[in-house]
Design brief:
Layout (H helix, E strand, L loop, with lengths): L4 E4 L5 E4 L16 E7 L2 E10 L2 E10 L3 E7 L3 E9 L2 E5 L4 E5 L3 E7 L2 E7 L2 E10 L1 H6 L5 H12 L4 E3 L3 E2 L2 H11 L7 H27 L2 H12 L7 H7 L4 H12 L3 H18 L17 H12 L3 H4 L1
Antiparallel strand pairs: 1-6, 2-3, 3-4, 4-5, 5-12, 6-11, 7-10, 7-12, 8-9, 8-11, 10-13, 10-14
Length: 318
Amino acid sequence: MLRSVQHVFNSPNVITDITGQLPNSCTIKLPYAKAEKIVFREGTMYNQYFSYFLFLLELTTIELHTDLEAGFINQKKRLFLFMMLQGKMSFFTEDGFPIITAEENTCYATYNRKGKFCYHLPKGTHQFFYIIPRTAWLERQDLNYPSIGQFLNSMNNDHKLYGHLSPFAIDVKMHDLLSQLFSLKETTDYTQLEIGLLKNIKAIINRYQLMLDKKYSSLVFNVQEYINKNYGDLQLNNKTLADHFFITVKTLIRTFKQEFDKTPYNYIVQVRMEQAKALIGTNKIAITEVFPLVGYSDFHSFRKQFKRYFGVSPSSFK
């Protein structure tokens, strides 16, 4: 697989091939990977990457002497298994809409369509790692990866610019698997190296699926899934959700907010607005026909909520 992510800085930058010459400040060194150094106004970035037919993996270390506002161009629709190993990184759409903040020691699956995205990093050292698996390969493994398979299906069929599963802490077992992957030695037997890498990456994806299974078995994720499927219901609100799942409204709001950092109602609004945005963006449906599809009884209420959420009216967006 070819690299599909190209970093974009707001200042001149110089890229140098440093394969086999990583500095000591890079605490993790992949002897089998190619490496590059990018120097820009705010600091230095070190990228180590390895490409194989079924996957691409990349480890990035960034040393900053001041905050960094930068971006990346995703040249092709891709699924990422992203891991924030050190520091914190906030992602945004090109027009500044927040996507997600990756906290230290967290892991999540995400997809990005072709286009430009932005990110913010505070002063300090940051390190992240991601695996881009070939989606056709994962789709053939859908029985082994049911949650990831559903996510892939969303990526292939919805109109969203991006999507992601909820982040969670990287556990001890996942840390062990990452250490095994990072510690593989370079060898003249390239086939043997690829077999070793593929074995480790399969183990990492399997572990991620197990973590998803454990997390998604909880009530709060059943609530999220119910909202995702029923956002068009005019009666959908905190009270009807609490009644459906036989819990109090207070418990529903508290547990949902602990997991997703927002109330169920705010999540309903988010889903409705993102779906409305996607429908309007297709140019296949009139704006006045969108509101009943996303849970609003009249255009005035829909227009008011859309402008509050996106900062522009539906007609301006179109």
